[in-house]
Amino acid sequence: MKNYFEMKNIRVIGLFSVAIALFYLIVILTEGFYRYTIIEYLATLFNLIMFTLIFLFITRKIVIRGISQMLFFLAFQLYAWIAFLLLLGIDVQQLWFGLFDHQFERNFLSMINVIPFRTLITQFSGFPSVNIATHQIIGNIIVLAPFCFFLLYFGRITFKSAFLIIFLYSLSIEVLQFLSDLLFFQARAMDIDDVILNTAGVALGILAYVFYLGLAALCRRFVRKESPIKGNEAN
To answer: Taking every annotated instance into account, which residue ranges of this chain make up the domain VanZ-like (predicted)?
Structure first.
């Protein structure tokens, strides 16, 4: 039974990836086949292949049971796809400008920050503005919170393991962002403050999971109380 569900998991991921590819193809058809749109579509396929392989690796041991879990899994996969595009997706226009037009002048020292809270202090000092800095901080905190909830929901791991996994995952993202800028001119940087904020978001994921467990227990208790009443009414 386990192998069936694991194969079903792979099929769900495959169907999602095919649906995304067809969606982008329809968009390209409506806009017309121009050179740039074709290149953009090929870049989307490249990003989609990379995302699918990474997502398969992360979720390879997850077992899906029932329609509700399948729908939740699909919802998370959509979230993961959007997060992947925002954090690691390759922008063809920037790659083109970097390779052929040489419009990017890069200072590699400015691409790396390993001093905790330096970026946060700089942002709240008024650059570019406190409002923008606040939005960026909130975004970094909540971006991986759904991933934490997903790990707890499907993986049945401990809270300590969730903190460790999110920390390592966030650190890997920062390294890959640096490499994407180094190799593909993606205007990204490696910042330890992002790792700190992403890891802090684990608390939100844990709170959401604890709330879900409490709500599920309350619903089960309510169903148990209702069942005897309905049985007595039937008699």
So the answer is: 108-211
**How does pLDDT run across 122-177, given as a tens digit for each residue?**
777 765 667 777 888 888 889 889 989 988 888 778 888 888 888 888 888 888 77
DSSP per residue, 172-207: HHHHHHHHHHHHH-----EEHHHHHHHHHTHHHHHH
Amino acid occupying residue 140: N
Compute the Cα dihedral for 117, 122, 123, 124 and give only its sign: positive
Q: Which two tokens stand for residue 127?
A: 């650059």
How would DSSP label each residue in 42-71?
HHHHHHHHHHHHHHHHHTTT----SHHHHH
DSSP for 97-140?
A: IIIII------GGGGEE-STTHHHHHHHTTSS-HHHHHHHHHHH
- Domains of the chain, by residue range, sit at 1-89, 114-235
Contact assessment for residue 94 and residue 185, using Cβ atoms and an 8 Å cutoff: yes
Cα separation, 124 vs 134, in Å, equals 8
d(CA 7, CA 24): 26
DSSP 153: I
